[in-house]
Amino acid sequence: MLPAQKVTRPVLWDRLRFWASHPWAFVSRLEGEFYKLRHPDEPWISDRAVRFCETSLTTKMSGLEWGSGRSTAWFGRRLKRLVSVEHAAAWHQRINEKIKAAGLDHVDYRLIPLDHPVEAPTHREYAELPRYVKVIEEFPDASLDFVVVDGHYRQACIRAALPKLKPGGLLLVDNTNWMPLSEWGVPANWKQVHRSMGFEGETTLWRK
Q1: What is the pLDDT, as a whole number, of residue 3?
Q2: Of 85, 93, 41, which is closest to residue 67 (Cα–Cα)?
Q3: Which range is least confidently modeled, 44-48, 49-53, 73-77, 100-104?
Q4: 123 near 37, Cβ under 8 Å?
Q5: Sign of CA dihedral 199, 76, 145, 69
Q6: 3-class state of residue 196 by DSSP
Q7: What is the SS3 string spanning 23-83?
């Protein structure tokens, strides 16, 4: 999960015009903000995906998360081990304080800067795998129970994660509404076990 960006006056004016011409979107956004207030510890993924994870994750499982936030502590409480990767230093410091305060010593939370400008287009394949993605190479094939893709280099992260998940392991990708599901690079024979739209976007889970 990425931190909120500072809103300049021109951007704010554009947003106000958008809300005025799309009242249904404004109402949905308000509902989302109220939901966050009522559920302050839940990940910023679809609320129905949160419910799915509540019943699917166990403290016998190991996971890796690209893109941190409230999800990091939430997943950490439900897994035996979690490695979480973040590229934004200020956000990493903020979330790291929460992880320490929660006493989640089994969460390995890492700050790994991007190898490319944050605004640069990302790709499914790289001649030299970015360090941010390369973290997963520390894990043997078929060793992870759960992988979350919710940060940068998303298609490359998915591609790198495919052999690392155990048979029966879960792959969670957030904001799958950004492009057709077929373009994310998940094998067609992996079972789609959950897909739902939340206030921030669509979350989809596959089982290997």
Answers
A1: 42
A2: 85
A3: 44-48
A4: no
A5: positive
A6: strand
A7: HHHHHHHHHHHHHHHHCCCCCCCCHHHHHHHHHHCCCCCEEEEECCCHHHHHHHHHCCEEE
> SS3 helix, strand, coil % of the chain, rounded to 5?
40, 20, 40
pLDDT reading at 133 higher than 90: yes
| Band (8; pLDDT cuts 50, 70, 90) | very low
**Which residue spans within the chain are E strands per DSSP?**
62-66, 81-86, 107-111, 144-149, 165-174, 191-197, 202-207
Task: Identify the pLDDT of residue 16.
Answer: 57
Residue 152 dihedral angles phi and psi, to the nearest 5°: -95, 170
Please name which of 128, 192, 125 lies closest in space to residue 160, comparing C-alpha atoms. Answer: 125
Does the predicted model carry a pTM greater than 0.85? no
What sign has the CA pseudo-torsion 149, 154, 156, 159? positive
Question: How many residues would you count in the chain?
Answer: 208
CB 124 within 8 A of CB 153: no
Cross-strand partners of 172? 148, 205
Domains and CATH numbers, the chain: 41-207 (3.40.50.150)
Contact 174, 167 (CB under 8 A): no
Pairing of strands 107-111, 202-207: unpaired
